[in-house]
Amino acid sequence: MLSPRSIVRKIPQYHPPLAGRDGLRLDFNENTVGCSPRVLARLRQLTADDLARYPEREAVAARVAEFLGIRSSELLLTNGVDEAIHLLCQTYLDPGDEALIVVPTYSMYRIYMAAAGANVVSVSSPSNFEFPVTEVLNQISPRTRLIAIANPNNPTGSVAQRDDLLQIARSAPNAGVLIDEAYFEFYGQTLLDQCRELPNLFVARTFSKAYGLAGLRVGVLAGNSDQVHLLRRVCSPYNVNAAALACLPEALADQSYIRQYVSEVLEGRTRLESLLASSGIQFWPSQANFVFAGVGSTPQDSAAIVEQMRTRGILVRDRSSDPGCAGCVRITLGSREQTGRLLTALQEVLQRLPLAQGALPA
Q1: What's the pTM?
Q2: How confident is the model over 230-257, as pLDDT tens digits?
Q3: CB-neighbour burial class of residue 274 (10 A; exposed 0-12, middle 13-18, buried 19+)
Q4: Nearest C-alpha neighbor of 220 from the set 272, 180, 161
Q5: Is the dihedral of CA 231, 146, 149, 134 positive or negative?
Q6: Domains and CATH numbers, the chain
Q7: Is residue 213 very low, low, confident or very high in pLDDT (cuts 50, 70, 90)?
């Protein structure tokens, strides 16, 4: 009987609730109003011939590199950030190597690391979810071959300081250090400028969040030219589809659309945090397009909030299964009008469910 590798049986499964997502989707940190009209116009221009040919990515990669202020040789277009993580694991991890993550964080780091046969070392965040730089540095060993850090972090929205991240990269010269900047547009700080100086540093970006291209699955992995050259050996030559390659230049060209959307998200983030504070609900200040809140002390508490919001046509994400996150939910922000709907519904739910009031100690 055919059997998988033993490690596959042990890999934790990631099952995002992607079915039946009817209503205002504030549960997956997507762009809630959609992509630029320029992207839709370009999609409508695609022909049968465009779809019949294998996609050519070099010209688009050069355009993205120019936009980011780096060389084409320092950049690899990927099928979302997920593929970037996978490529790093396949390139640098042998069975028995160590890979570090700080939890709670994005689940796919652990899954891809484990699939490569690595021993995943989890460093726990403190209760305030500040980045535990000292603990990370203490866990680096000669066996450490990959470190993945989301900045801003998902699901907490917290950030690590630039100097701390650079110290980690310098302290682990034999390990790849991935800084996942999926939420860069809502934070504005980057380590892209350091990739040329630190050959073990990689920065990932996505066009699934602010740009509204989650359905096209396109991301960027940037790093030292020599290391990117090695990653290309593992990467499929046709990993990014023709529709994504056609639309990405148009998405980049419409920065006024991105700025307007981001400004409304940031305004909404402030409004949501103010409502939570006035309602006595603990939350953690966010630098992303979502807010992480402790609406109770048990999974039942957060599940009750999620269900009550669903009945009002608004989806939010229960994150109680993450380490140290019992009773927590993550709420994505969108347009000004959508935030108004969110706040009205949430205020009503919080008034109906007294269990949420001041449920977690500050």
Answers
A1: 0.95
A2: 999 999 999 999 999 999 999 999 999 9
A3: exposed
A4: 180
A5: negative
A6: 6-30+256-356 (3.90.1150.10), 37-253 (3.40.640.10)
A7: very high
